[in-house]
Task: structure prediction
Amino acid sequence: MYTPQPEHKFTFGLWTLGNTGRDPFGEPVRPALSPAEIVHLLAEVGAYGVNFHDNDLIPIDATPGEAAEIKKSFRKALDDTGIVVPMATTDLFKSAIFRDGAFTSNDPKVRAYALQKTMNAIDLGVEFGATTYVFWGGREGTETDAGKNPLDAGKWFREALNFLCEYVLDQGYDLKFALEPKPNEPRGDLYLPTVGAMLGFIETLDHPEMIGLNPEVAHDTMAGLNFVHAVAQAWDAGKLFHIDLNDQMIGRYDQDFRFGAANIKSAFFLVKFLEDVGYAGSRHFDAHAYRSSDYEDVKAFARGCMRTYLILKEKAVQWNEDAEIQDLIAEITADDGSMDSYKGAYSRAKAAALKAHNFDRQAIAAKGQPYERLDQLTVELLLGVR
Result:
């Protein structure tokens, strides 16, 4: 029951299973794998797809001949395994040229180079079948507001996305963009740090219909935000184009834990939401195995991400079918119809009637809500005793 199938659309990035365990305080602990080797590893654990930054696949200083050989090897691995490429993105954060941002750099040469690099990376993604293109602005921010005018930064970011939308349209690509918000790290403060901020920004663009969101569990959670609420907001706006699944402890650095490793109840409600609304996109695990892992344990990490999702998917069905839970939901949401005449669109008559209505505040306030019982039943269901 918990074996991943293609219809689950479980994907991983080259940078996830290929992570060598290096961190700011330690050297790599696992040997680097080639993109083709990572594809075969993904096939072994049962994944559906692989995603990449441009330089995950082709090193930034590769010669044209080297790039051609890498692409040939990668293509063969995809063909041999049936792994697909649903999403691609651009590395606009590792190189020293991006130390003050890419699209929001104060230097116009950096902004122009970022556009050039992104166009080439879009071509590469489309070449391998990507239909979603993610933008994570890892360096788009500041440590001090003395160094950059936020109005200028917003204008430059807007110009870049408008330019790239026109490029995609001009090339005739079947591609949509997904912006990935994050509050901080690696910059002190990143621009457009939340789903809400991104949604507001998208509506200022020339082609808002082409651009949605790629929210990530860790990014909201590290700032103490409720990720399910953010995903619901993106879905309600019709902008949930992609999603990054992992796990995270509140207030820590960006940990990118195995999905469900830290906050199982939050993970449950996220899976339940995605399944209940019928989200049909990739379920992308932007997560890393522990630094203590060898590659056998990395495989266990990848299998664990997918297995936990499928277990929680089963639990969501159980929650929706549990008679006692649903009785409580019915009690909580009970509607006696007495307010029906006030529902819906405004009218002058409706407003006048509502203003004249006599509400029994004490009686209404006396009605409790059985949230403790409901939450306890949810915990018991997750613990496997229901």
In short: The chain has 15 helices and ten strands.
